[in-house]
Amino acid sequence: MKAKTQKKLSKAGRPPLPEGNAKATMLRVRVTPDERAAFKVVAKANSQTVSEWIRSTLHAAIAS
After folding, report:
1. What average pLDDT is seen over the chain?
2. What is the domain range of residue 51?
3. In terms of DSSP H, where are the helices of the chain?
4. Is the pLDDT of residue 33 over 70?
5. What is the pTM of this model?
6. Are 43 and 50 in contact (CB under 8 A)?
């Protein structure tokens, strides 16, 4: 009788981010399609993703 060997399967997807680099919570906000399109345009003009642009805009608002 042959012994069964099990391979440890790795999980699909990106490996976890290092400690402190992962975002802890998600904030979901409803916007109109026109607002979303405007956010995309402005974010792209600033070489950012929409999430990066929104985050930097909110940080600037609370810093002032």
Report:
1. 88
2. 33-63
3. 33-45, 50-63
4. yes
5. 0.65
6. yes
